[in-house]
Amino acid sequence: MSSPLAQATALLDGTLSVRVHSVRAAAWVTRSALEDILGDLIRAKGFEPGRANTRTLLGCIEVLYQEDAPHLASTAQYAWDSLSQASHHHAYELAPTHAEVSALTELVKGLASHAPKPDGA
Q1: Alpha-carbon gap, residue 52 to 26, rounded angstroms
Q2: pTM, 2 dp
Q3: For the packed helices 71-87 and 54-64, what is the interaxial angle rounded to 10 degrees?
Q4: Which DSSP symbol is given to 67?
Q5: SS3 22
Q6: 6-46: pLDDT as tens digits
């Protein structure tokens, strides 16, 4: 099975077809991938995130990476907030655009480059 980020990219470029809402589906998958990446970033610093919620993980990233990658926390927070909004938009709001979700997917791919792959992945 491919990674969530590869699935999100496939949804966006049309190689993975869904009937409707492919952009929104890509936002959901990308947000899920981001949540996994946050756990990997915390493990890379020698801590186990357990079952902490995403807000807590984002706070941990801010503390753990304040010296060596201070931009990481704000970038991750922006990505998570934006993907959450794209995933949960209301009928009275404009749907997220393809370009917006594509940019967020690329942003999350950049965050993934800071997280070492877990053993066996």
Answers
A1: 24
A2: 0.82
A3: 160
A4: T
A5: helix
A6: 888 888 887 776 665 678 888 999 999 999 999 999 999 99
In whole angstroms, what is the distance from residue 50 CA to residue 44 CA? 14
How far apart are the C-alpha atoms of 75 and 37, rounded to whole Å? 13
Is-contact 112 9, C-beta < 8 A? no
Q: Is the pLDDT of residue 64 over 50?
A: yes
**Residues whose CB falls within 8 Å of the CB of residue 8, separated by 6 or more in sequence, listed in order:** 26, 27, 29, 30, 33, 101, 105
In the chain, the percentage of residues whose pLDDT exceeds 90 is 60
In whole angstroms, give the CA distance from residue 42 to residue 48.
7
* Confidence check: pLDDT of 119 > 60: no
Predicted local confidence at residue 120, as pLDDT: 46
80/87 Cα distance (integer angstroms):
10
Amino acid identity of residue 73, one-letter, is: A
